[in-house]
């Protein structure tokens, strides 16, 4: 199964990607995580991406498309994969269609006001990429990752003023993908408001997992 998770930043794509990954046994490709790893490692790609990411803007299409192509060639993607945060523009979607066939684009639908409240409470593990939320999905031990024990951080782009810019970028550049995949008969939608378990239940039902 090749699946795209669509939705605003903070809609819960990363959390549901982890759920689907376990349930379906396929890896998740998060372009945000790949880019953050490149920034942390100080690679030329990371240096190129950092300023756009810090400002809540998109990294150039060619950079992201190249990164995804490389990742897709790895053997663990043989049975399928989940795209989390990719594609984010119609150009990226067209590039993806040229490389592989997508089975489904699943939209996790959450209104902007809820997103803003959520993102400012988000905590991430920079070591393994796991995500938590101080209210909705707290780690067992405050400030520490459940999976690997590393300290949790607030992403610089989860600060309130950057969140507004990221939402504007989403509406302008990524939302057109909803019509793009609807037009291909591949769009499914779940309501992204509720507890993590409730939303996972809706996701499982929508995907027949
Ligand atoms: P995310 O973790 O998916 O919210 O991504 C964090 C940031 O990485 C975004 O705000 C963008 O600056 C950049 N980014 C992630 N995925 C993409 C993509 N597919 N295209 C362009 N920029 C991206």
Question: Which SSEs are present, and which pair or pack?
Answer:
Blueprint: E1 2-6, H1 13-24, E2 28-30, H2 31-41, H3 44-54, H4 61-72, E3 81-84, H5 90-99, E4 104-109, H6 112-120, E5 122-125, E6 131-133, E7 152-153, H7 160-174, H8 176-183, E8 187-191, H9 196-207
Parallel strand pairs: 1-3, 1-4, 2-3, 4-8
Antiparallel strand pairs: 5-6, 5-7
Helix pairs in contact: 1-9, 2-3, 4-5, 6-7
The protein binds adenosine monophosphate.
The site of adenosine monophosphate has 18 residues, from helix 2 and helix 3.
**Percent strand:** 15-25%
Number of strands: 8
Number of helices: 9
* Inertia-based shape: globular
CATH-derived architecture of the domain at 2-26 and 79-111 and 168-207: 3-Layer(aba) Sandwich
Summed over residues and divided by their number, the pLDDT gives a mean of 94
Walk me through what this model shows.
- This protein is α/β, with parallel strands linked by helices and 209 residues long.
- It has a domain of 98 residues: Rossmann fold (3-Layer(aba) Sandwich).
- Helices cover 48% and strands 15% of the residues.
- The protein contains 9 helices and 8 strands.
- The strands form 2 sheets. A 5-stranded parallel β-sheet has the order 2-3-1-4-8, sandwiched between helices. It has a 3-stranded antiparallel β-sheet with strand order 6-5-7.
- Strand 5 and strand 6 form a beta hairpin.
- Helix 1 packs across helix 9, helix 2 crosses helix 3 and helix 4 runs parallel beside helix 5.
- The radius of gyration is 16 Å and the shape is globular.
- The termini are close together.
- Adenosine monophosphate (AMP) binds next to helix 2 and helix 3.
């Amino acid at each position: 199964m090749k699946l795209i998770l669509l939705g605003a930043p903070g809609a819960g794509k990363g959390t549901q990607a982890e759920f689907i990954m376990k349930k379906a046994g396929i890896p998740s490709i998060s372009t945000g995580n790949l880019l953050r790893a490149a920034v942390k490692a100080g690679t030329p790609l990371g240096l190129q991406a950092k300023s756009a990411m810090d400002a809540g803007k998109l990294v150039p299409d060619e950079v992201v498309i190249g990164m995804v192509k490389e990742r897709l060639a790895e053997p663990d993607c043989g049975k399928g994969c989940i795209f989390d945060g990719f594609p984010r523009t119609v150009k990226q979607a067209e590039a993806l269609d040229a490389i592989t066939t997508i089975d489904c684009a699943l939209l996790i639908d959450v209104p902007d006001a809820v997103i803003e409240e959520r993102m400012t409470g988000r905590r991430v593990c920079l070591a393994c990429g796991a995500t938590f939320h101080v209210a909705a999905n707290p780690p067992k031990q405050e400030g520490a990752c459940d999976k690997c024990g590393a300290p949790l951080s607030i992403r610089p782009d989860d600060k309130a003023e950057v969140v507004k810019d990221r939402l504007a970028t989403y509406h302008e550049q990524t939302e057109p993908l909803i019509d793009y995949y609807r037009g291909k008969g591949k769009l499914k939608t779940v309501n992204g408001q509720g507890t993590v378990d409730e939303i996972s239940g809706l996701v499982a039902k929508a995907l027949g997992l």
